[in-house]
Amino acid sequence: MKYYRIEFEIEDDGPYENPHTVYVKNEESLEYMKPKDNYENQIEYFEKFPTRSIGTLFERRKYTDFMVAAPWCFGLEAAVNKRIKGIFEELNISKKEYYLKKIDIKKIHEDFFLLFIPLIREEDYYFPECRFNDFNSEEDIFFKNNEEFQKDDRLLNCKHIALNNKYKDCDFLNLRYGFFVSERIINKFQEMKITGWELSKRPSISFY
Fold first, then answer.
1. pTM of the model
2. What's the rounded mean pLDDT across residues 104-116?
3. For the chain, how many helices (H) and strands (E)?
4. How much is the mean pLDDT over the chain?
5. Beta partners for 55?
6. pLDDT of residue 15
């Protein structure tokens, strides 16, 4: 299965040229979103997130199907509408791969959801096949293992990520270097003319 990194489309529709962004505003959700390290308990974190949040659309006259959700919190990747939820259900994507929590967005009379995707830790990278470079050179940089990688204090760009084979049939890959989805999701997004997203060329993905 092929994978593509997706990003938020930047569209000039208001006083700022930024992606469409939904801000969570209710106190219960904001309290839960305070920074914490949840790698070990991320599923429990997603499941216990408030079932209903309240949000506002930042400085926009219209909205898209796929939008930034803010403030950042662990595993929160986007705010998506029922059209995207329907695509996930039509493709029968495992509910273990994603978690949706309802958000009511002021002045928008359509169902939206906060999309949470479990993060893959660097321990599951196959580092001998990963390729990096610093921002001053295109020369490839390699690491023997995660320990060597964690000790490096350079600001690195990732060109290619090799992952443990156990992820090769997943539809979502949420990594430190971006949020990736399977080709079949991309095909459905294009077929259904889903708005608010665009493809990014790097990094590429393989499995070992």
1. 0.92
2. 96
3. 5, 13
4. 93
5. 24, 105
6. 59
Q: Which two tokens stand for residue 203?
A: 């990094």
| Among candidate residues 116, 107, 115, the one with its CA nearest the CA of residue 56 | 107
Residue closest to 84 by CA, chosen among 171, 200, 178 = 171
* Per-position DSSP letters for 89-149, written without gaps between them: HHTT--TTS-EEEEEEETT--S-EEEEE-PBPPGGGB-GGG-EEEETT----B--SSHHHH
What is the bridge-based pairing of β-strands 156-163 and 131-134?
antiparallel
Residue type, 21: T
Contact 55, 70 (CB under 8 A): no
- Residue type at position 185: I
**Residues 20-44: what's their mean pLDDT?**
89
- Residue 47's Cα: distance from chain center in Å? 17
| Cα gap 27→130, rounded to integer Å | 41
Answer whether residue 1 shows pLDDT above 90: no
What percent of the residues of the chain are helix, what percent strand, and what percent coil, each to the nearest 5?
Answer: 20, 35, 45
Assess whether pLDDT exceeds 80 at residue 61.
no
